[in-house]
Amino acid sequence: MAPPTGILLFYLIIASSFSPLIISTAHLNLTLPHQHPYPDTVVLEVHRRVNESIARRQILVDNQCESRGNPIDDCWQCDPNWAKNRQRLADCSIGFGEGAMGGKGGQIYIVTDSSDKDTVNPIPGTLRHAVVQEEPLWIVFASDMLIKLKHELIINNYKTIDGRGANVHITGNGCITLQYVSNVIIHNVHIYNCVPSGNTNIRSSPTHVGYRGKSDGDGISIFGSRNIWIDHCALSHCTDGLIDAIMGSTAITISNNYFTHHDDVMLLGHDDKYLPDTGMQVTIAFNHFGEGLVQRMPRIRRGYVHVVNNDFTHWQMYAIGGSANPTINSQGNRYTAPDDPNLKEVTKREDTNTGQWDAWNWRTDGDIMVNGAFFVPSGQGIANKANNVDPKSAVLINQLTGNAGVLGGPRDNSMSMSKGGTTEASGSGHDQSNSGDVDLSGMIFSGTGASAASSPSPTTTSILLSFLIILSLYITITNQDGQLSVPLLLFL
Predict the structure, then answer these.
(1) Measuring CA to CA, which of 134, 281, 342, 377 is 20 to 30 A from 127?
(2) Four-point Cα dihedral 392, 396, 397, 398, nearest 10
(3) What is the distance, to the nearest Å, from the Cα of residue 235 to the centroid of all Cα atoms in its chain?
(4) What is the helix (H) or strand (E) element at residue 154, kind and residue range?
(5) Cα–Cα distance measured from residue 365 to residue 333, given in angstroms and rounded to the nearest whole number
(6) Which residues cross the membrane (predicted)?
(7) For residue range 373-393, what is the model confidence (pLDDT) as tens digits?
(8) Is 336 within 8 Å of 313 (Cβ atoms)?
(9) Band of pLDDT at residue 60, cut at 50, 70 and 90
């Protein structure tokens, strides 16, 4: 017996009211907001940008800029006055996270106080006070700082954390959380020794304080968020993942980072059964995966991940893994296998056998295999070879990843770990110069009295409601009698 017409009509009205959240009736896959409909076109654009920078390097005669062929760095480093135009960085991303605006168009907020004493009423001038504001902000640092977090640092929409010109270290309890936000850029900071914390109240905006349970201890946790770019950071020694992206996060670029000394490096996807992660799209480019890493560089549950022009120099189990039919497009990387003859394979299919994964689309194209490393392709990856794109840039991997990590000092966190971190700023709240490296010209936001910029910020409530609708609607099952079973809808 068919279900009542009224129930079906109600179901269709609710579903249609959230038009960006499209349900595929054939496979029950979901389309996430800001998911690109043709991901291979994003891949082609990445190659175009790389090839353009390499070609420019070959004919460059301007001594002011020694182009390395890395399109992200060439975009802003070739400007000798970049410190006077910091927000140009927002135009330099590539790949799926290219649209991340960060705090572009907003005022400059100078962090002058390295303390983190109050998670409910953060002190003006601190990083915590800066990141919870509603308006777009471009956040810079007045001096070298070691910021020991008391609890999770919850970042609001339209923020850029820009560590250029200062030696900035973020460590401690919880570390960085991006939850139901968009347009965040994190650039040129050290992140390490992040441990679980929580069971306390933490402010996430000027008007909202919420109770937070225990965190996982990720370096950067991306939860239900989009348009995120993490660039030129050094990450190591955290309790859980260095970077985890889960719960329908998408439009992410992770580039030019230096990963060392960690087990579960990067997890992309919440759970194998969580279908919204099918819409996750991530670009992983120009990173160095180095000493002391074990696995998950990354591990992908669902979605489309482009791994391009990275240098994998160490792993103790595997480099790239997957578990629920993700598309993995590996192009122009260098994989150097360990000496152990049992650890030569780059790839690992988690908790599946050959009959289950042989149709998964795992591609390798132009990758360089060193010391016996080998990549096991499957599905379209065997015949398609990523639309026959030829990533010749693999031979320039030293050049493309040579500046991975934090600029202007040690690229990784080894020196910081041995010394226990850098010298902590006095926390007096007064501006402290750093040999003129931090340009403080232009609009300065000191913590109070700033007017909101014009860029709109999506509300946390609307995004949360969207995900609740997803959770309640994505399972529509026909039972053995041919009857349609409609789940009970849940609302806030």
Answers:
(1) 281
(2) 170
(3) 12
(4) strand 153-154
(5) 9
(6) 7-28
(7) 999 999 976 654 444 445 557
(8) yes
(9) low
**Tokens 């079973």, residue located:** 485
Token pair for residue 97? 């996270």
pTM: 0.81
Q: How many residues does the chain have?
A: 492
404: CB partners within 8 A, 6+ apart:
232, 256, 257, 258, 286, 287, 288, 311, 411
Token pair for 308: 């391009």
Instruction: Give CA–CA dist 210/200, Å, rounded.
Output: 8
Question: Do the Cβ atoms of 251 and 281 come closer than 8 Å?
Answer: yes
Place of tokens 């400007």: 79
What is the amino acid identity at position 5?
Answer: T
The DSSP 8-state label assigned to residue 82 in this structure reads G
Q: Tell me the H-state helices in 291-335.
A: none
Sign of CA dihedral 40, 41, 46, 47: positive
**SS3 for 374-417, per residue?**
ECCCECHHHHCHHHHCCCHHHHHHHHHHCCCCCCCCCCCCHHHH
Instruction: Name the burial class of residue 26, with classes exposed (0-12), middle (13-18) and buried (19+) by CB atoms within 10 angstroms of its CB.
Output: exposed
CB atoms within 10 A of CB 36: 17
- Structure-token pair, residue 110: 């100078």
Instruction: Specify the residue for token string 């054939």.
Output: 26
Unique residue bearing structure tokens 């991975």: 404
DSSP letters of 351-363? T--HHHHTTS-EE
CA dist., res. 178 & res. 226, Å (int):
9
The string of pLDDT tens digits covering residues 1-40 is 444 444 434 443 444 343 333 333 333 445 787 789 999 9
Active site residues: 296
Site of tokens 């009542």 = 4
**Residue reference for tokens 């910081």:** 416
